[in-house]
Structures are given as C-alpha cells and as structure tokens.
Amino acid sequence: PDTTGVFNTSISIPVRTTNLTGLNVVSGSLDILYSQPDFADIQIDTANSLLAAIATPIVNLTVPGIIRISFAGSSALSGEGVLFWIKCKLSNTAGGGSSLTFQNTFLNGDLLPIVQSGRVTYPAPPSIAINPNNGQLICGDSLHLEVNGTNAKPPFVWTVSDPDLAIIDGN
Questions:
Q1: What angle do CA 12, 17, 21 make, to 5 degrees?
Q2: Per 3-state DSSP, what percentage of the chain is helix, strand, and coil (rounded to 5)?
Q3: Which helix (H) or strand (E) segment is 125 a member of?
Q4: Which residues contact 165 (CB under 8 A, 6 or more apart)?
C-alpha cells in the first residue's frame, strides 16, 4: 500500500507479498526504482518480516535511484505479509513523494512474480517568517511580532533566550 510521511523524518516502508507457502521460494532478486532526491539513508530491514528467517540480504545502492536486493536461504519462505522493510529518511525539501517501481524481479531465478508499485508522499516542510525580523527596544517598550508562512500550523510557542531581559505575553 501507499505510505505517507513527514519531511526530514525516518520511515519504514513495507514491501509486501502474497502467500508464498508451497511455492518453494528460497531465493529472490529485485530492483526498486525511486526518485533519488526523496530518500536518504536507505537501509533494508528484515526484522519482523518473512526474510527474518534467512541470511541477511545483499543490498546494492551504488546506482542512484535504484535499490538492488538479493536474498537466498536454505529453507523455503512461507506465509504472506511484509517481505522486508525499506527504512529511509524523507529528504526532498520541496516535499512531494516518489513512486517505488519494481523491475527485474525474480524468485528462485526463474519465477516471475506479479508486482504492484507503491508511492510514498509527504508535504513540504513549513516555511515561516517572523515580522519584524529585528528591532531595538528600551526598557518599558513592547514589540508586536507576527508569523507568516506556508505549511505552518498554529499554535506557535514563543520563548525568549534570557527571561531577565524580556517577557512574552499572550497578546
């Protein structure tokens, strides 16, 4: 299924499979294509997945925009659910998202599975401005500040670095 996230956070994207019981699947290889600026710090995680019972998969990330994965074990995979997890950081400052497209997918070297692509989406990070962005005050003066921006969601929390020099009221 499609996945949503938040810019600059790490997410776990499930790569799922239908029931493999009885198919005697002991190995596989696949390429996953993605939009390179959207993902950073990519890792493949097999914890709590069908691949947890076999050796750690071989992962190749040398080609930008392609995750190459190969796995092999001595026992056949069984069951359905999460085959493995793609862990990554959502890194495109423009937000948006990326399709995850499967290519060159084989099980046991010759079985061609039916694959379905997915999509990860996330909004652009907030962009805010404080107006005025500077000012000079003398004892007893006050200054009214406003926040403007895109994707910024109130309520905002105001603080001062030195409460002996200034206070913030609710107005």
A1: 135
A2: 5, 40, 55
A3: none
A4: none
Read off the tokens for 6. 């938040």
Tell me the pLDDT tens digit for each residue of 56-111.
Answer: 899 999 999 999 999 999 999 999 999 999 999 998 888 888 999 999 999 999 99
DSSP code, position 74: S
Reduced to 3 states (helix: H, G, I; strand: E, B; else coil), residue 37 is helix
pLDDT tens digits along 100-150: 999 999 999 999 999 999 999 988 888 888 888 888 888 888 888 888 887
Please tell me whether residue 52 adopts helix, strand or coil conformation: helix
Identify whether the C-beta of residue 46 lies closer than 8 Å to the C-beta of residue 58. Answer: no
And the tokens for 58? Answer: 């071989």
